[in-house]
Design a protein that fits this description.
Elements (H helix, E strand, L loop, with lengths): L4 E5 L2 E6 L1 H6 L7 E3 L7 E2 L4 H7 L14 H28 L5 H13 L1 H13 L7 H5 L2 E5 L7 H16 L3 H4 L10 H6 L1 E5 L4
Antiparallel strand pairs: 1-2, 1-3, 3-4, 5-6
Helix pairs in contact: 3-4, 3-5, 5-7
Length: 203
């Protein structure tokens, strides 16, 4: 079944319209549309189905739509808090409540805490290539990870991006500071993986 769209005409929503009806109305790339399921309006050229139907070019990712360094930093802090907090809960439930021996508790607790960086790495890969296109921290900050065409990244690209973060760190974090010196606000790991962090657009 073909998708139906609400179209903004002279500042007011009209429709819903079918794909053929939108085409008959000579819809423009900059017109705002949304489906019933979409939370916000988007430009027609931002929706893959409409671009393909009408031959719209992919919209340029303008500089003001890129995720800023402070947004990314706050998202990263939130994600570490989420992952670390999850392990603290696991330690409390599994170790404190189940294991009776004090020494075994200590060993188990440190072993689980040692898994936090690995869990954080896997968490970022899974979330960034998911339909949400970002971790919970990024979702809270209204930013997401995309490829250079603005599309959802693949698991391989998500893995490459997060592995490349090692280089951003071992360069005394200069890899992160590179975001201040390029128009697309890419960190070193973004450049190496061919990814961008962009803001969610609101109507």
């Amino acid at each position: 079944m073909s998708q139906s769209y609400i179209l903004v005409v002279n500042g007011k929503p009209e429709g819903p319209f079918s794909m053929d009806e939108l085409k008959a109305r000579s819809i423009k790339p900059g017109d705002f549309v949304k489906t019933i399921d979409m939370p916000d309006y988007k430009e027609a050229q931002e929706i893959a189905e409409l671009r393909e139907l009408f031959g719209f070019a992919k919209p340029p990712l303008l500089m003001q739509y890129f995720g800023s360094f402070d947004q990314r930093l706050v998202a990263s802090v939130l994600d570490w808090f989420i992952v670390f907090g999850s392990f603290v809960i696991i330690i409390f439930i599994v170790v404190i409540l189940i294991i009776q021996d004090k020494q075994t508790r200590m060993i188990a607790s440190f072993a689980l805490l040692g898994c936090v960086p690995v869990a954080n790495f896997i968490y970022h890969i899974v979330m960034e290539c998911s339909a949400k296109q970002g971790t919970l921290g990024k979702q809270m900050m209204k930013i997401k990870v995309v490829d250079m065409q603005g599309d959802r990244i693949t698991p391989v690209k998500a893995f490459t991006r997060n592995m490349a973060k090692i280089l951003s760190v071992i360069t005394f974090f200069i890899g992160y500071l590179l975001a201040f010196f390029n128009k697309q606000q890419q960190c070193l790991h973004d450049m190496l993986a061919g990814t961008l962090v962009i803001k969610e657009r609101l109507f």
